[in-house]
Amino acid sequence: MGPHRYGRCVVSDAFPYESQYVDVRSSRMHYVEQGTGSPILFLHGNPTSSYLWRNIIPYAVPHGRAIAVDLIGMGRSDKPDLAYRFFDHVDYLDGFIEALDLDDLTLVVHDWGAGLGFHYATRHPGRVRRIAFMEAIVEPMRWKGTPAPLAWLFKRLRDPVKGHRMNSEKNFYVKRLLPMMVSRRLTAAEKAAYAAPYPDVASRKPVEQWPREAPFDDEPADMAAVVATYNSWLRRSPIPKLLLWAKPGAIIRGEKAAARIAVMFPNTESVFIGKGRHYIQEDQPDAIGAALADWLDRTG
Predict the structure, then answer these.
(1) DSSP H helices in 16-111
(2) Is the backbone peptide bond immediately before 199 cis, with ω within 30 degrees of 0?
(3) Sign of torsion over alpha carbons 135, 140, 142, 143
(4) Does residue 2 carry a pLDDT above 90?
(5) What percent of the chain has pLDDT over 70?
(6) Domain boundaries defined on the chain
């Protein structure tokens, strides 16, 4: 279909980037890149891929080497036999950054890509220059503070039987939840691009596992510790941070939540980018790109 208009925004479903691969831990990880200079690394979450960033990458290119990677087991990256816990992704992302010898990093992160990016920055603060984030888990969560429909859904997704049936057998996260969490209607080409990496039950293992990694009421305990640790680091770190948020949002829900985060983390600039739910790159790529480019220019 190509470019199409959504409100004032022009969204394209095309992915006009040459695929590149690098060997990491005996598997291939897929990525795309454009531009030169210090790296700007885009990290996606569940169940997306580098495709999520297709309309935002051009805004970053004048400011550095824009790189969008597919997490292991996702997108066009290989699908080795892993548990696909957070720490498996950490291992492969570390390997990817090492293989490309990336330093002086700007991280642009979303969803679980944000958790991975924050965790990386906490462990390698000297290699990270600044962080732009959106729809991110910034602190451990509580079931009590979670909206009832979302709590009900995540409890089902985390259940070993119901979650497997929903995500791996029925492909719920890809076919139903992703489109529901975009304010506009995804095109057939966009839906196909997101579904392509997950043609069968075995391929959906990462998608099934991600909801079980979210730390609710300190469970799982190792993930609660990870989030608490990077939250503490973000509260102390003076590096430039950019929070991009939408209404109604899903994880970062509205102006009060965004304002609280901007106060919590020093040197954080908060920018409202318009209407959107969770996958805000599909609703507001131009607003995200323009805000990102402006911030990159000013914090250069």
Answers:
(1) 57-60, 86-99
(2) no
(3) positive
(4) no
(5) 97
(6) 3-141+220-298
> CB neighbours of 289 closer than 8 A, spacing ≥ 6?
55, 56, 58, 59, 60
CB atoms within 10 A of CB 147: 10
Q: What fold does the segment set 3-141+220-298 form as a domain?
A: Rossmann fold (3.40.50)
Report helix, strand or coil for 34.
strand
Q: Which of 33, 70, 88, 111 is catalytic?
A: 111
Where residue 282 falls (left for φ over 0; alpha for ψ -120 to 50; beta otherwise) is alpha
Question: Mean of the pLDDT values across residues 97-109?
Answer: 98
For 136, the token pair is 């991110």
User: Of the residues 13, 70, 88, 135, which is catalytic?
Assistant: 135
Q: In what order do the strands lie in the sheet with 268-276?
A: 20-24, 27-34, 65-69, 39-43, 105-110, 128-134, 241-248, 268-276
Q: What is the mean pLDDT of residues 19-39?
A: 98
Amino acid identity of 220?
Answer: P
Catalytic residue among 30, 88, 278, 286: 278
pLDDT the model gives residue 147: 87
Q: How far apart are CA 210 and CA 157, in angstroms?
A: 9
Sign of CA pseudo-dihedral 28, 95, 30, 214? positive
Contact by Cβ (8 Å): 287, 274 = yes
Beta bridge partners of 28: 23
Q: What are phi and psi of 140, to 5 degrees?
A: -55, 145
Q: Is 278 a catalytic residue?
A: yes
Q: For 66, list phi and psi in degrees, rounded to 5.
A: -80, 120
Average pLDDT, integer, range 13-41: 97
Assess whether 30 carries a catalytic annotation: no
